[in-house]
Amino acid sequence: xxxxxxxxxxxLANPQFWLLTIGSGLIAIHxxxxxKAENTNLLGTSFLSWAAVSFIVWxxxxxxxxxxxxxxSFLGLALIWIALIRSASLSxxxxxxxxxxxxxxLGLALIxxxxxxxxxxxxxxxxxxxLSIPKLLPxxxxxxxxxxxxKSSAFILWYIGFDVTLAGINIYLPNGSVEVLxxxxxxxxxxxxxxxxxxxxxxxxxxxxYKILVPIVAATVGFIMNSGRVALMTVLVAKDNINAFxxxxxxxxxxxxxxxxxxxxxxxxxxxxxxxxSKDAKF
Length: 283
Known about the structure:
Blueprint: H1 2-8, H2 15-36, H3 40-59, H4 70-89, H5 96-113, H6 122-130, H7 133-136, H8 139-159, E1 165-167, E2 170-173, E3 176-179, H9 187-203, H10 208-238, H11 242-250, H12 252-282
Antiparallel strand pairs: 1-2, 2-3
Helix pairs in contact: 2-3, 2-5, 3-9, 3-12, 4-5, 5-6, 6-9, 8-10, 9-10, 9-12, 10-11, 10-12, 11-12
InterPro entries: Exo/Archaeosortase_dom (IPR026392), Exosortase (IPR019127), Exosortase_cyanobac (IPR022505)
Membrane topology: Multi-pass membrane protein
Protein name: Cyanoexosortase A
């Protein structure tokens, strides 16, 4: 009986240490690849998502079942190995960088807990999957969201007093204009916020109405913040301030909007938690 059990189940000495080491290495590899690709939006989104997922897994580490079968471990290693080889051979990463976190996460989960244990990481894997959503959506969906972003940005400019004209995805001011392309549609930020919403609901189970409200608020915050960013860049183009435009478009300024979005959503989550605690205190 002992021989059969050893043949079907793998138990590592100090599994948490080895999984932590492998996981940290995979995260470092992905962030390095994104940094080299100079994809600022994905870098910020990936950093926040990896940090949140790592925190959740670390918090429940003592309750995880770390037993994996031979087949599941082999499949997990194969996924990671193939992904690493592919990333080393590509000269242009494109959408592969968006899918890499989910591939790494799935591979590591299979190594750690096997097929039966995947359910322990459903929320974390969904969060990482949201990173690849921008590359999985069909073109017409992205165009519709881009069009909504252009309309929202034009409305913001009109509301604060600018003489703005909108034609499709083009926003015109008297001294300049911008064309809202797919990269500025806000899909990346919205996906990031939805991933964080999933993690919040996993950490703090809520009533059904909050399970609907939380993702809606997360997506709305991401959409509005990105619309504000596009409006700001339109003003900078009109003022012929190209350096500032580059900063907010592809520099560190774009990360600032992601951080503010997360902080606003975090405040909303904090209010919900405080409301639940006050209700419990009454009883």
